[in-house]
TrEMBL record:
Its main location: membrane. This is CDP-diacylglycerol--glycerol-3-phosphate 3-phosphatidyltransferase. It comes from the Bacteria. It is an enzyme of class 2 (transferase). GO terms for cellular component: membrane. Pathway: Phospholipid metabolism; phosphatidylglycerol biosynthesis; phosphatidylglycerol from CDP-diacylglycerol: step 1/2. One of its GO terms (molecular function) is CDP-diacylglycerol-glycerol-3-phosphate 3-phosphatidyltransferase activity.
Length: 192
């Protein structure tokens, strides 16, 4: 297994760690900023999530630079991203830290795109993430970082930046889903 694929697998392994930290450490322990509610749990989850997000940046760059792009990487990288991001989005929606409608829209988009990819794979086509899908993932990761930090430092001046970024990520998510559908619809529609 090459280094980019190892980084992808590391990102997948970090998902249960994020879940354990987020769900098992009470937000009442180690409150850092009483105004925003920022606590130790948020900082620890943020640090693990940020480290996992950096592996996403690194695995792609290393794979392209060293010509280490594999079918496994094309397949596993988007799954690792979705596992990490969607798991955290769902937990944050459940605790009220993220807007439920935005999370549902992004999750539905991911399920549809995964279905399209599976149909394309049955036709021998492995579909890697496009530029809009990558932008969606970056926006989601940035939004999650701000939300994990309880909108700090923007909370100090009353700007709901985490929510703004989450909705921008939702719009990019829907747009990139539309692009995937247009690109892959021939595989789905041919069997109708």
């Amino acid at each position: 297994m090459n280094l980019p694929n190892k980084l992808t697998m590391a990102r997948i392994i970090m998902v249960p760690i994020v879940v354990i930290v987020y769900l098992c450490i009470p937000t009442t322990i180690g409150v850092i900023d009483p105004k925003s509610g920022l606590a130790v749990r948020d900082i620890l989850t943020f640090l693990i999530f940020a480290a996992a997000s950096i592996t996403d940046l690194l695995d792609g760059r290393i794979a392209r630079k060293n010509n280490l792009i594999t079918s496994f990487g094309k397949f596993a990288d988007p799954i690792a991203d979705k596992l990490l991001v969607n798991t955290l989005l769902i937990m944050m929606a459940a605790t009220g830290q993220a807007n439920l409608i935005a999370v549902l829209l992004m999750t539905a988009r991911d399920l549809i795109v995964d279905g399209l990819r599976m149909v394309a794979a049955q036709h021998g086509r492995v579909v890697s993430a496009g530029i809009y899908g990558k932008c969606k993932t970056v926006l989601q990761m940035i939004a999650l970082c701000v939300l994990l930090l309880r909108n700090w430092p923007f909370a100090l001046i009353g700007i709901p930046m985490g929510t703004i970024l989450l909705w921008l990520a939702t719009l990019m998510s829907l747009y990139s889903g539309y692009i995937y559908f247009v690109k892959l619809k021939k595989y789905v529609l041919e069997s109708m």
